[in-house]
Design brief:
0% of the residues lie in helices and 46% in strands. By secondary structure, it is mostly beta strands.
Amino acid sequence: MRARVLSCVLGLAACTTPAQQPAPTAVQAVQVPAMGSARPFVGPGAVLSNGGAWLLEITPGPEAMPDNASFRFEVRIADAKSGDAASAVTLAVDAAMPEHGHGMNRVPRVTRLREGHFLVEGMYFHMTGRWELFLDVTRGAWTERTQCRVELADE
């Protein structure tokens, strides 16, 4: 199985609003009206959070998210305006299949490696289809979500 990425806004090169970002080139973003809040993946790089406060760089990228196998990735969180590593933040990660009405059957572990840099282990997409990945960044009482859609398809 391999992951075919459908959406999450990626582009570490510039801190722009979604309307200012260039059109995807390597991967065709797919608009799904029922899940319009998730942002399109347009290649490896950084995901702009829903409210635009954070850039989340996911390594390895969504292409390394397999079906029916445990995987891990690192997340670097930076201030979207300055590009500086986020300080005093926590990260929570989860995923769901909205069309099926269920989430993952495992709870991932999130470990802080250093300020603004986290390791996520134990992710497990147990079936093919459309998944929505949730990355919640919290500082104090304020949480901002980043949502990414990933399509797991048979090769």
